[in-house]
Each structure stands twice: as structure tokens, then as C-alpha cells.
Write a structure and sequence with these properties.
Layout lengths: L2 H20 L5 H25 L4 H28 L4 H30 L2
């Protein structure tokens, strides 16, 4: 997967998360989920774009670690949603799967970059 494809995939994921959040009820627990998840999912996509323009390997690694954190937080809020109500499990399942795959890609990229940088 090239940078553009991953950018597009992260952006699509973020849009899907935001649309999902708009369907959640206005109860206080779900409002918390909405407020958090609409920040972290798009942040992962935006920070990946920034990582693609990194000025150094250290800058790239730092930005990718932010992407990792934001994706992991998105995963938490998806799990939290199901914790609030099992009725969302079917909707959350494919979102969680995509988030988990994206997280694996990002972590792998960080590990590979660190390993390659250590060889220099």
C-alpha cells in the first residue's frame, strides 16, 4: 500500500466514524463518545498526512506515533460504545476491524522505520 492509498483509507475511516457518531443517541454517555471519537479518528488521518511530509526520520516516527495513539483511542471509543449498549455491536464490528487493520499498518511502519534507521 502506498502513501496515497493509506491517506485515502484513513480519511475514509475517519468519515465513516464521524457518520457513525451522528447516529448515536443524545444520552450523556453517547455524547461523550461523539465528542471524543469525532476528534481522534479524523486526527489520525490528518496526522498521517503530516507524517507524509515529515522533515526527518525522527519527525516521521514522532508523527506516526501520534497516528498510532489517535487510532488506538478511536478503538477505545468504539469498544466503549458497545459497552454502553450491545445494540451497536453489529455497527461497530466492521469499524473496529478496519481500525485494527489500520493500526497494524501504522505500527508496522513505525517498527520498520526504526529498524531501518538503526542500521544507518
Amino acid at each position: 500500500m502506498n502513501k496515497k492509498e493509506l491517506q485515502d483509507r484513513l480519511k475514509k475511516f475517519a468519515i465513516t466514524i464521524v457518520k457513525f457518531s451522528e447516529e448515536l443517541p443524545e444520552k450523556s454517555g453517547f455524547r461523550t463518545v461523539k465528542n471524543q471519537i469525532v476528534r481522534c479518528a479524523p486526527s489520525s488521518a490528518a496526522n498521517y498526512r503530516a507524517a507524509c511530509r515529515a522533515k526527518s526520520t525522527a519527525d516521521y516516527i514522532n508523527k506516526m506515533q501520534i497516528v498510532e495513539e489517535e487510532l488506538d483511542e478511536t478503538m477505545f471509543w468504539l469498544e466503549f460504545t458497545v459497552g454502553l449498549s450491545e445494540e451497536y455491536r453489529l455497527q461497530v464490528s466492521p469499524l473496529w476491524k478496519e481500525g485494527d487493520e489500520l493500526l497494524s499498518i501504522v505500527v508496522s511502519s513505525i517498527v520498520t522505520t526504526k529498524r531501518n534507521n538503526a542500521k544507518k
